[in-house]
Amino acid sequence: DALGDVSCGQHRAANCAQCPQGNGAPWCNGDCEWDSRANACVVPSEGEQDLYELLELSDSADASEIKKSYRRLSVLYHPDKTPGQADKFNGIRDAYEVLSNADSRVLYDTGGMKAVKNAKEAEVGE
């Protein structure tokens, strides 16, 4: 189905450039990443862990749900209690750092970790 590969705001399109509302790259909604050099959407990096899944949350979770889940999971997977789970614990911590910050969360929701990393790199460059 040609109109169904990418969520473009509230619409579906084959890619962001073909958004029926003409929104283009700013409306990728996290389903793809806009490559301005290619003037096209590309699929996000394979293997990138979804931060909401990592915290066992839906993407509509509010700040208190994010904090509660983080606390529960960080205790459960703390390296002192669960040896060999340091990577899981670090992932939970990193997910919380992104999702608990309103600005980082918006970036993540619209462009994935690439958008969050790009914003951090831009801050360092200022």
From TrEMBL:
Record carries keyword Iron: no
GO biological process: ERAD pathway
Protein keywords: Chaperone
Gene3D superfamilies: DnaJ domain
Keyword Chaperone: yes
GO molecular function ontology, one term from the record: protein-folding chaperone binding
GO cellular component: endoplasmic reticulum
Family annotation (PANTHER family): DNAJ HOMOLOG SUBFAMILY B MEMBER 9 (PTHR44360:SF1)
Pfam families: DnaJ (PF00226)
Name of the featured protein: J domain-containing protein
SUPFAM superfamilies on file: Chaperone J-domain
Superkingdom, taxonomy of origin: Eukaryota
SMART domains to which the protein is assigned, alphabetical: DnaJ (SM00271)
Species annotation: Spumella elongata
Domain J: 50-112
